[in-house]
Amino acid sequence: MAEVINMPRLSDTMEEGTVATWLKKVGDKIEEGDILAEIETDKATMEFESFYEGTLLHIGVKEGETTKVDELLAIIGDKGEDVSSLLNVGSKIEKSDIIPEGEEIEADISDIDFEPVRNEELPEGVIIVTMPRLSDTMEEGTVSTWLKKVGDKIEEGDILAEIETDKATMEFESFQSGTLLYVGLQEGESAKVDALLAIIGPKGTDVSTIAKNFKVEVSETTKTEVVQDHKMETSKAEVKSVVSNIVETPQNGRLFASPLAKKLAEEKGISLSQIHGTGENGRIIKRDVENFTPRSAAPMATAGTVVKFVASGQEDVDEIKHSQMRKVIAKRLAESKFSAPHYYLNVEFDMENAIAFRKQYNSLPDTKISYNDMIVKACALALRQHPQVNSRWFDDRMQLNNHVHIGVAVAVEDGLVVPVVRFANEQSLPQINASVKDYAGRARNKKLTPQEMEGSTFTISNLGMFGIESFTSIINQPNSAIMSVGTIVEKPVVKDGQIVVGHTMKLTMACDHRTVDGATGAQFLQTLQGYIENPITMLV
Q: In what order do the strands lie in the sheet with 3-6?
């Protein structure tokens, strides 16, 4: 069935958009996540991706033309499908869903058993805030923490809440000023994108009727000033990101911190003067407060795992509700496993030179690298020589990536996230080390942004630190391969006809047979072996 694509609202102040470039043409096959067009907003030119699959059947706005938000932009559906009835409805389509032939919008609304809230019925200054789309795959969100309560004064830029998406827990800021009049979700509750999240307006305004009548089904047909569909994909200098804090410029020796950082520091009894800010222009942000350790504090001993007491002979279970992250991980892994024909290549590398190299490298002042950093660098260099392993599969073509973005799998409480080290082949070993450490720390605190987990061309999963000698991984699509790294093992090996003590490491590469043939994967591993067994070559 055809899907109508309207001009999206790509910023909080956007009222109309101009199509700068169409990256697809009528008749092209569209995959979910494909970039359809570049759209110029009032703040930046941004890429607009498709959330649907099918064939591009109609383009409603030509390059260089401008149209209002929610005007018809394009139609995607089955090849050859007749969409004339959709075009006859008029250029402006208020619903992203298809309006059945012959049925008017008013008829659709009349079927609903409540009086929908319309813009003209809203008291002056009242703003409805809906659950924002904080990532391209987000379908629903969970309110992790409210940082404001009903009755609080809200300033533009204040952090309203922390929202858990399928990828991370993110700060959600207000784009309006006023008083928080109503909260639609309690902490721990989940709702679909566009569901009622909060209402902001003049102090003392009665919004009970608005909250009661608001329904997601008509959230796109109501003409309210809605904060929705905040896109996270570009131009950080020009577009206000939903995960950003207020940027302040240091002057006269003053300390600058985000509102959330100030709140956390106050709760923890920490003086901001003790904290080194890592935000823009040295601004103190939330993770700086969370990661702060007083210099006089001694390292804490690792506590043992607390096991729940269960009486002998008694059956007992605990049920844990799926987090958004766990739901999406399950869905994506199943899709990958059953759509991509996996096969596996196993190798075992001599690590003697790598061990000696790392020891010498770490003897340099203020320098520390891990074996994982060396593997990331070696894979990145090898991938530049074997772009077919660094590829992506489409139904009608193969995309060979000449840039190398390495996804590094990080285990977190709810599952696994994959932050991306961009242009890894161009980074030094210490740079890779710093990036991976930063990503891993913020991943465990659910503070990575969607952009930091998008765009990988190859993935590495390392369980060597847990003593695992070898294992296989499921491909992190749309990548064509993933490398599973085991621990370094001391064992008897044969060298020059003699049995000696040596150190080896096993690696297993899972490949998508549609893009990476066996011989292609084997050649890549031979190149990789040259870098890992002779790591000095990575510096040449």
A: 3-6, 72-77, 54-59, 29-30
In CATH, the architecture of 115-235 is: Beta Barrel (2.40)
pTM recorded for the entire structure: 0.51
* 1-111 is a CATH 2.60.120.970 domain: no
Ordered per-residue pLDDT tens for the chain, 540 residues: 788 898 887 765 577 888 989 999 999 999 887 888 888 876 567 788 888 889 999 999 999 898 888 889 999 999 888 888 887 554 444 433 443 444 443 434 334 344 444 444 678 888 889 888 876 667 888 888 899 999 999 988 888 888 887 667 778 888 888 999 999 999 888 888 888 999 999 998 888 888 888 865 433 333 333 333 333 333 333 333 333 333 333 333 456 676 667 777 777 778 777 787 776 556 677 777 877 776 443 333 344 456 788 888 888 888 877 776 677 778 888 888 888 999 999 999 999 999 999 999 999 988 899 999 999 999 999 999 999 999 998 888 999 999 999 999 998 877 788 999 999 999 999 999 999 999 998 888 878 888 888 899 999 999 999 999 999 999 998 999 999 999 999 999 999 999 999 999 999 999 999 999 999 999 999 999 999 999 999 998
User: Is residue 391 within 8 Å of residue 516, measured between CB atoms?
Assistant: yes
Angle at which helices 371-385 and 352-361 pack, to 10 degrees? 110
3-state SS track over 369-420: CCHHHHHHHHHHHHHHHCCCCCEEECCCCEEECCCCCEEECEEECCEEECCE
Architecture category of domain 326-539 in CATH = 2-Layer Sandwich (3.30)
Domain with CATH 2.40.50.100 in the chain: 1-111, 115-235
129, 34 Cβ separation under 8 angstroms = no
Residue type, 531: Y
How is the beta sheet containing 45-49 ordered, strand by strand? 45-49, 35-40, 16-22, 66-68
Cα separations in angstroms, 222 against 101, 218, 349, 477? 21, 6, 62, 37
User: Catalytic residues, which ones?
Assistant: 513, 517
Q: Is the dihedral of CA 509, 512, 517, 523 positive or negative?
A: negative
Task: Give the residue range(s) of CATH 3.30.559.10 domains in the chain.
Answer: 326-539
The token pair at 460 is 């590495």
Closest Cα to residue 167, out of 459, 513, 412, 2? 412
In whole angstroms, what is the distance from residue 481 CA to residue 457 CA? 9
